[in-house]
């Protein structure tokens, strides 16, 4: 394995883990403060117990996210020094602001964890809100930097040099809003369904059903609303990609031939050598409409792009299909939940709780697939149309050993988190018993 492949594999592996930790860290505080608010209003001890249980989860994922995020920041310099040499001064502002948001979040967590019965109740609750808001702000700032890689702006590129840098314009690049919106909703949807699924399983197993049912309702409300809004965000993102990165759109759809009234493919097996897609379902003219709002709009095919600018085709296509498929399952399940608010008999059936328990991983599957589409679909560029990934990688040999080290680090982190969360759930059930 050469340096480029090792570096790509390491970055992909660590991002796949960190994005889950980061999303949980962004969203869990909102579940916690809603439960806390309900306790302040009702003084129901179940909500107090739930709040204190969730705050431990927030603390665990704050630390885990900090560790994995710090490791990733080292990776940028370790694996991609040429990229950081030029991109650092341009996208340094969102990273610096993300550091400030992280600092605010750390202070708020300190107040929240140790403020019980020591500070004003309303101020204590507000510190919980600050944790959530600063966590979401951190996520948006980091996504803005990634958006810049897809839509570079805020500089003049002359003779291989980056001149006249404008960090504000770089931060507010053409991709930041659509990516930030899509990512934020994805974080709420995936974490909402995951947490709801864990509590649904506890209800299904008849372990303290009163507490777990209340926890389920809080989590699935956030997750369900986000899942229903996500198709709107996806439409915004798709139209943005069609305009700025038509080759990525063509790869997502495995669309080889340029044509007007292009069909949308559902499923399909990609043969990159023969440039065909078999075993697919075609929806006539749907791709043209979804990409440009016009059933007869022309969609440029992969065959019309230079070969050295084509990304892998099969990977983003399959990942896109998985992302959309999981998203539709979540949206339909959200409708089932909101109908069940009126039809309460549904919740009396064990199959209802089993359904949502089985849905727990769907959001994170969609999340991972979406990032594969974003990152693999941008290749061969690390900065779109400016710098190729192969030109940014470190010349130092032996990156495969760095990959092994990070593989071990993130495996230990993941196993530790699983052990801690299992212990928390077990302790919560034992406490209530």
Write the layout of secondary structure elements.
Layout: H1 3-42, H2 45-79, H3 81-114, H4 121-150, E1 156-158, E2 161-163, H5 167-171, H6 176-204, H7 209-244, H8 246-252, E3 259-260, E4 264-271, E5 276-283, H9 286-292, E6 298-299, H10 314-342, H11 350-358, H12 362-378, E7 381-383, E8 387-388, H13 389-392, H14 399-432
Antiparallel strand pairs: 1-2, 3-6, 4-5, 7-8
Helix pairs in contact: 1-2, 1-4, 1-6, 1-12, 1-14, 2-3, 2-7, 2-14, 3-4, 4-6, 6-7, 6-11, 6-12, 7-8, 7-10, 8-12, 10-12
Explain what this protein looks like in three dimensions.
- This protein has 433 residues and is mostly helical.
- The protein has a domain at 174-370.
- 73% of the residues lie in helices and 7% in strands.
- It contains 14 helices and eight strands.
- The chain has helices at residues 3-42, 45-79, 81-114, 121-150, 167-171, 176-204, 209-244, 246-252, 286-292, 314-342, 350-358, 362-378, 389-392, 399-432; strands spanning 156-158, 161-163, 259-260, 264-271, 276-283, 298-299, 381-383, 387-388.
- The strands form four sheets. Strands 1-2 form a two-stranded antiparallel ribbon.
- Helix 1 (3-42) runs parallel beside helix 14 and helix 8 (246-252) packs across helix 12 (362-378).
- The radius of gyration is 23 Å and the shape is globular.
- The mean pLDDT is 87.
């Amino acid at each position: 394995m050469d340096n480029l492949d090792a570096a790509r594999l390491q970055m992909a592996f660590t991002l796949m883990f960190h994005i889950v930790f980061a999303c949980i860290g962004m969203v869990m505080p909102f579940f916690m403060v809603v439960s806390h608010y309900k306790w302040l209003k009702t003084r129901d001890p179940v909500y107090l117990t739930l709040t204190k249980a969730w705050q431990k989860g927030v603390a665990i994922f704050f630390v885990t996210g900090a560790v994995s995020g710090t490791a990733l920041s080292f990776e940028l310099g370790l694996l991609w020094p040429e990229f950081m040499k030029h991109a650092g001064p341009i996208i340094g502002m969102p990273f610096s602001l993300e550091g400030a948001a992280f600092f605010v979040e750390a202070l708020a967590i300190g107040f929240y964890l140790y403020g019980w019965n020591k500070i004003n109740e309303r101020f204590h609750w507000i510190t919980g809100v600050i944790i959530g808001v600063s966590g979401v702000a951190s996520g948006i700032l980091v996504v803005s930097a990634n958006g810049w890689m897809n839509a570079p702006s805020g500089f003049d590129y002359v003779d291989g040099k980056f001149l006249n840098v404008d960090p504000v314009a770089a931060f507010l690049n053409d991709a930041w809003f659509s990516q930030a919106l899509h990512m934020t909703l994805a974080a709420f949807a995936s974490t909402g369904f995951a947490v709801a699924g864990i509590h649904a399983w506890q209800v299904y197993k008849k372990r303290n059903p009163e507490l777990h049912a209340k926890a389920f309702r809080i989590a699935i409300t956030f997750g369900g609303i986000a899942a229903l809004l996500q198709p709107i965000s996806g439409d915004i993102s798709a139209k943005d990609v069609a305009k700025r990165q038509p080759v990525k759109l063509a790869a997502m759809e495995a669309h080889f031939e340029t044509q007007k009234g292009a069909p949308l493919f559902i499923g399909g097996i990609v043969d990159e050598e023969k440039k065909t897609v078999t075993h697919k379902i075609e929806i006539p003219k749907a791709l043209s409409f979804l990409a440009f709002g016009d059933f007869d709009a022309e969609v440029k095919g992969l065959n019309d792009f230079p070969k050295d600018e084509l990304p892998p085709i099969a990977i983003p296509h399959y990942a896109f299909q998985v992302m959309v498929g999981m998203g539709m399952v979540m949206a339909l399940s959200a409708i089932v939940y909101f109908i069940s608010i009126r039809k309460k008999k549904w919740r009396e059936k064990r199959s209802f709780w089993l359904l949502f328990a089985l849905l727990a991983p769907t959001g994170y599957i969609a999340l991972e697939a979406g990032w594969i589409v974003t990152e693999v679909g941008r290749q061969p560029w690390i900065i779109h149309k400016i710098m190729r990934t192969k030109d940014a990688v470190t010349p130092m040999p032996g990156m495969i050993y760095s990959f092994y080290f990070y593989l071990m680090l993130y495996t230990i982190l993941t196993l530790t988190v699983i052990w801690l969360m299992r212990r928390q759930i077990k302790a919560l059930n034992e406490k209530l018993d």
